[in-house]
Design brief:
mainly alpha; two-stranded antiparallel ribbon; 14 helices
Length: about 280
């Protein structure tokens, strides 16, 4: 089933209707939201904020309260066009907030911390698929996860990692998905996100390419741009990991969903207001 659709009982609910319900403060909509997206959030925390793994539920609660503040102002600022664009904005929010919780001194010291200029040099001249492999490897992903995420063979994966042998061998042959230098890497990602130029394509174009909805003539110049632009490579690889985790994780158990919902300050429905499911379908 398309990840932008989900079923409660016999009723099909779209991502857009769930999000509208969340912004209206509806508990049922938030249960749908948290059940679907909390597992994705936890996977991102495990990769980019590994030192905070044991406190990820509390961290997520804190971020949810920030999303809900001022009548869901921050939540409303995210892209609403489609689920993956929305998740890309949510991911950026999570990493921005998470970066404030990190101690740079806890990054490993047996390898140079990745910086924009050094990463640019590593990426220069590589085919896009090898750039993706290298970038996501530095982010903390294991070989096994990369092979599944990018749908590549081990041989292709290894060719994409050859440039890491000299200075970044610490990231090679990792069995666990966890960044070795979270503070430095999130600083690099923040730099990349801020480096947007007038030539950077809308994220929706990347989604269409990854979905196979474009011709070679349409995608060739876009993929060429991605290979030359750290800002767009960050967004491109973000989509790759979001698509992978969204498809691969199981829905959060209802007991955990209810625990999260109970901590949100949601408005009570007016006495005569129709239930959420009836309102979204005009019943």
């Amino acid at each position: 089933m398309n990840s932008e659709l989900r079923t409660i009982g016999s009723t099909l609910i779209t991502f857009h209707k769930t999000l509208a319900g969340c912004e209206a403060g509806n508990r049922e909509a938030w249960r749908a939201f948290l059940g679907d997206y909390t597992p994705v959030v936890y996977q991102l925390f495990d990769v980019y904020l590994p030192a905070l793994r044991d406190g990820r539920a509390r961290l997520w609660e804190e971020m949810l309260l920030a999303l809900a503040a001022n009548n869901f102002e921050r939540l409303r600022s995210f892209d609403h066009q489609a689920e993956r664009e929305f998740l890309a904005d949510l991911r950026s929010f999570l990493l921005e907030r998470g970066a404030t919780k990190l101690e740079p001194a806890e990054d490993i010291t047996r390898a140079p911390k990745p910086a924009p200029d050094t990463v640019d040099a590593l990426l220069q001249g590589l085919p896009l698929i090898h750039q993706e492999i290298l970038f996501l490897k530095l982010a903390g992903y294991s070989d096994g996860t990369l092979e599944k995420m990018l749908r590549i063979t081990p041989a292709i994966a290894q060719r994409g990692l050859e440039r890491l042998q000299a200075d970044y061998s610490a990231v090679l042959k990792k069995d666990r998905d966890a960044c070795l230098w979270p503070a430095a890497w999130l600083e690099l990602l923040a730099h990349a996100r801020s480096a947007k130029s007038a030539d950077c394509p809308p994220l929706r174009h990347f989604v269409r390419i990854l979905d196979g909805q474009t011709s070679w003539y349409e995608k060739e110049p876009i993929e060429k741009h991605v290979g030359l632009c750290l800002h767009c490579l960050e967004r491109w690889t973000a989509l790759r990991e979001l698509i992978y985790w969204r498809r691969g994780v199981k829905r959060l158990p209802e007991t955990e969903v209810n625990a999260l919902v109970s901590r949100l300050s949601l408005r009570a429905q007016a006495k005569k207001e129709k239930p959420f499911l009836k309102r979204v379908w005009g019943a």
